[in-house]
């Protein structure tokens, strides 16, 4: 794999079944004890706080483990025969917990650390025979270390993906194996490189009308190649409102007293509906971009206060509200397809006409229309997307022809 290849990491969750769940519990307990030991030690050693995680790990090992010189360490680890990679995983968890504690500046001198519950991460040497169907883990039975074969139930792993150190978690009735999966992306030329090569970009603007979003594709010189509106917003809002009505009805029939869990199924339906649409729209945008050989997607960036203000104005189930979910989905779907996503500040993009640069003199928000001083008229959101595209190209150091 060339070194310039980019990657994304997602966590896959598989159900795990084994003959001795109690051994996994014991392993977890031992892990957390070792983790707490190192956590407490690290909090006492202020001189180690500024070091990188790797150096901290090294320093903690020198303090606790006998080296080749057979010298007794300063604070010997109170457990015998802990496998090297088990200990290192526990130290890493301890360092992460301590660093977050230190950064919160909430250390009370002399106070014992809270109990740690990090899941056991199985580093290399602690697992073998790993596929989507099974894994063999090295576990602590309470008396000795032993290999235990476990069955797995879940989706098959993507081809070419790299499986990273898995961890075991206890989720209600089930044992789960969490596996970080590293997937390599096809095309990771940098932004600068892509612009220099004149590759295509697609600028997106989100709207609160029937269109969830509008996109404009142009080449590196700013020449427009394709335009698309992704609509369905009215249908989405309508479906949300139908569910809202049911919630209201149920609330009235139950009296004003709210009961926990009441209407839960309707709220879940609303949640699923918005997830479904965010997924659908983002997939359609990616398809459009792939069809038009888009190399970068440009999203408008706003100041947080502005976003909050607009979101409140657009209503909870308005089209614009879905933009948060669409953005999130777009980012990882684009990456998997070798498309970069970059954000450009949206300031000023809705004030001028993209055709002639003259100020906009009149807008009709409801109809998504604008008129400029020279009489050009058209879709307000498409105009903004065009301006965003231009702004981005200019900022990236290329003049629009
Ligand atoms: Zn104009």
3D architecture notes:
With 401 residues, the chain is an alpha+beta fold. It is 38% helix and 24% strand. It contains nine helices and 16 strands. Strands 1, 2, 3, 4, 5, 6, 7 and 8 form an eight-stranded antiparallel sheet that branches. A hairpin with a 4-residue loop joins strand 14 (360-364) and strand 15 (369-372). Helix 6 (264-291) packs across helix 8. The radius of gyration is 28 Å and the shape is elongated. The two termini are 38 Å apart. The chain binds zinc ion (ZN). The site of zinc ion has 7 residues, from loops.
Q: Using the 3D structure, state the CATH architecture of the largest domain.
A: 2-Layer Sandwich
User: What is the global morphology?
Assistant: elongated
- How far apart lie the N and C ends? 38 Å
Low-confidence stretches: none
Q: CATH topology of the largest domain, what is it called? A: Nucleotidyltransferase, domain 5
Return Rg in Å.
28 Å
- Work out the count of structural domains: 3
CATH class of the largest domain: Alpha Beta
Biggest β-sheet description: 8 strands, antiparallel
Total strand count, please?
Answer: 16
Number of helices: 9
Proportion of residues in helical segments: 25-40%
Characterize the quaternary organization of these chains.
single chain
Q: Which sequence of SSEs, written as H and E, runs from N to C?
A: EHHHEEEEEEEHEEEHHEHHEEEEH
Task: State mean pLDDT (0 to 100 scale).
Answer: 86
């Amino acid at each position: 794999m060339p070194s310039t290849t980019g990657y994304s990491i997602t966590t896959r969750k598989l159900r795990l079944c084994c003959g001795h769940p109690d051994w996994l519990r014991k392993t977890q307990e031992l892990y957390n004890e070792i983790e707490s030991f190192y956590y407490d030690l690290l909090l006492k050693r202020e001189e180690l706080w500024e070091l990188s995680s790797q150096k901290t790990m090294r320093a903690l090992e020198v303090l606790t483990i006998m080296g080749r010189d057979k010298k007794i360490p300063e604070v010997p680890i109170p457990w015998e025969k802990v496998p090297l990679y088990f200990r290192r995983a526990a130290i890493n968890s301890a360092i992460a917990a301590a660093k977050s504690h230190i950064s919160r500046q909430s250390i009370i001198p002399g106070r014992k650390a809270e109990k740690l519950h990090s899941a056991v991460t199985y580093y290399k040497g602690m697992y073998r025979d790993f596929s989507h169907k099974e894994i063999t883990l090295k576990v602590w039975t309470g008396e000795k270390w032993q290999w235990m074969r476990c069955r797995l139930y879940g989706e098959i792993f993507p081809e070419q993906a790299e499986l990273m150190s898995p961890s075991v978690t206890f989720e209600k009735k089930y044992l789960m194996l969490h596996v970080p999966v590293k997937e390599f992306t096809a095309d990771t030329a940098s932004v600068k490189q892509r612009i220099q090569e004149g590759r295509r970009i697609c600028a997106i603007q989100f709207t609160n009308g029937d269109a969830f979003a509008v996109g404009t594709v142009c080449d590196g010189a700013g020449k427009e190649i394709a335009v698309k509106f992704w609509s369905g917003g009215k249908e989405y809002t309508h479906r949300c409102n139908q569910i809202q009505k049911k919630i209201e009805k149920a609330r009235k029939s139950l009296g004003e007293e709210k009961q926990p869990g009441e209407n839960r199924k309707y709220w879940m339906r609303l949640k699923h509906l918005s997830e479904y649409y965010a997924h659908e729209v983002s997939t359609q945008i990616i398809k459009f971009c792939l069809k038009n050989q888009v190399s970068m997607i440009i999203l408008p960036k706003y100041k947080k206060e502005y976003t909050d203000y607009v979101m409140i104005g657009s209503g909870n189930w308005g089209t614009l509200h879905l933009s948060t979910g669409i953005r999130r989905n777009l980012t990882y779907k684009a990456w998997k397809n070798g498309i970069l996503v970059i954000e450009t500040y949206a300031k000023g993009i809705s004030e001028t006409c993209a055709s002639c640069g003259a100020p906009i003199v009149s807008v009709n928000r409801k109809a998504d229309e604008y008129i400029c001083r020279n009489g050009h008229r058209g879709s307000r959101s498409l105009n903004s997307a065009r301006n965003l595209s231009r702004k981005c190209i200019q900022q990236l150091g290329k003049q629009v022809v």
